[in-house]
Amino acid sequence: MSPARGQRVCSSVESYFSSYNMGPSVFPPLQPYKTGLFWFLTEDSERFVQGPAVAGTLGPLESPGILKPVEATDDAFWDQFWADTATTVQDVFALVPAAEIRAVREESPSNLATLCYKGEEEDENARPLAESLLLAISDLLFCPDFTVQSHRRSAVDSAEDVHSLDSCEYIWEAGVGFAHSPQPNYIHDMNRMELLKLLLTCFSEAMYLPPAPESGSSNPWVQFFCSTENRHALPLFTSLLNTVCAYDPVGYGIPYNHLLFSDYREPLVEEAAQVLIVTLDHDSATSTSPTVDGTTTGTAMDDADPPGPENLFVNYLSRIHREEDFQFILKGIARLLSNPLLQTYLPNSTKKIQFHQELLVLFWKLCDFNKKFLFFVLKSSDVLDILVPILYFLNDARADQSRVGLMHIGVFILLLLSGERNFGVRLNKPYSVRVPMDIPVFTGTHADLLIVVFHKIITSGHQRLQPLFDCLLTIVVNVSPYLKSLSMVTANKLLHLLEAFSTTWFLFSAAQNHHLVFFLLEVFNNIIQYQFDGNSNLVYAIIRKRSVFHQLANLPTDPPAIHKALQRRRRTPEPLSRTGSQEGGSMEGSRPAAPAEPGTLKTSLVATPGIDKLTEKSQVSEDGTLRSLEPEPQQSSAEGSPAEGEPDQAWREQRRLSSASASGQWIPTTDWILSWKSKLPLQTIMRLLQVLVPQVEKICIDKGLTDESEILRFLQHGTLVGLLPVPHPILIRKYQANSGTAMWFRTYMWGVIYLRNVDPPIWYDTDVKLFEIQRV
Where are the stretches annotated Disordered (predicted)? Predict the structure, then answer.
């Protein structure tokens, strides 16, 4: 692009923002569109007369009717579209309705083209307008005295200077790859924010495409912006990342400081987070991630690493490897996620941020694209600073149907973390930070917190969360071999879940329900085989509820019993009962999880893949390494879950072993029940009961024990060495990237952005196809 042409493009973009009172301009000012801009191009003047007026704009003109194409050389006509008064961004949205813009596009496309290109020289080799716009925005994001502080005594006064400066010297905030923290500047932050909003608008093409099963198609706007064509890609990426991770909403810690001073940095941080996650929208299932070699030397983004994806933002993110950079990122995200949890003696005295959903997507992207970062997170107990806020959000949102997307992203992150051994080990740290949650009081570890919250979600969440049950229990299975000591509260919660899931009416209600029982039995087996010594509470709870295991072993399979169970299903609308869960009192200062207010806006989400598509099984070797297990295409797995070979095979097998009623409702059969009942992994638990129950009963009779603590003391000193079956290999179900979750993340991300950008309402009342806008 020639300097002269570049200056014109930058001028036109800059004028768009200077009209919003965004501070001093470094370009020759152009004036904003006058009121009724698109009326001129399509409709008669009566609408202009009746519409809102802005001082200084043109008054009523002679009615031109539906205009025919106007020559670009007719300056007298085109000059009418500029006024000498400044308006705000809200004025532009109010005075130039989206419907009128679309009317121009449909009825007078040549006039719209002329308006966009007026002044432009004819050039066959010229860039498309979209590329020119994105490059101009990128230039403006590093424009001295407009969005960054000038390093020179005299202000930049020409487009050539803007194009020649090294923007790596103007990164917005200290952090990854940049040590200098520039002085805060309100005007610069506001200008950056408006430019980032414009970028989001450019990138929002994804909203107008229906969700497709294959997510390989990339967004051309994002693709160009994050390519080598954009010379500012690296400083832009680091500016966005550092701005988000360096933000401290609490400031100096003065109570009510957010009421005394307006925080102009938070809107910028929100937009930076949104632009960052949109530019990182990349399907990792279709690309090769750089090799993780564990090196911690070299530059912030070492060129020695194998080349990553063509998307430079994803590439840069995947190549960060300095420990100090990881620490900066992790501490920043943890600080912001923990912000809504801050409790003080003065109500509402601390500022609460609202962009935690964007932060969770960013954390997911970091872990998914940069395995070195994931290993760093799990290397110390710092991961718990991420875990606790996620559990807080999950518990708080469990009754709110407008926040089902938040529930999914939180569970997905925990599923990803649980695939690593270190996560299970870190959960053994005592939980001492008492964040008020609507859960029973307990004394224990972070593992207890996780299981108690999961129990609360399963037993008191809304029905749309039932597809997440598999994921929740898979997380517990993954960490169970490493849990050294569960509290009595937690042990009772696990046994209550088994009791609820193993009733005949629940087992026979749906083709997949028995999987939940298999997961829980696997949890008990892992703890008994690998962590028996410290888990006397769980062993005691298993002994107390031994009848549940005997009932499972003797599960009826005859048609009359099936019919009786189905009759009970029709009489019992609630899937789970809290009877016997021993709730107890909730934490002091907590509030019950509340449903959404009627009329709350929410966006629809695509369905998530089943747990067999979300994960792949790996076996833990003796040296601690993981060995991926090949799926067995011709049979069901040992736990009774569907075969993982041909996609439709499991469904065909279910259809063969069951039948459908005239209404299409699924009905279990004797053959179907027998197909998985024989695979219930009850051997270890039955052996434990066979050995310990007589001993406990004898002690109770001989010593007249009625005190629970005495029995627990006996179990603590007991042993089952040599009495249990040979320990089974530990199976871990690790998250695997797939196009289904990539599509889900895209839908969720843009839904969040749509709902969070209401001033101005950029996408309101447009033909969005990626999701539906619904009211609770």
Answer: 285-304, 560-657
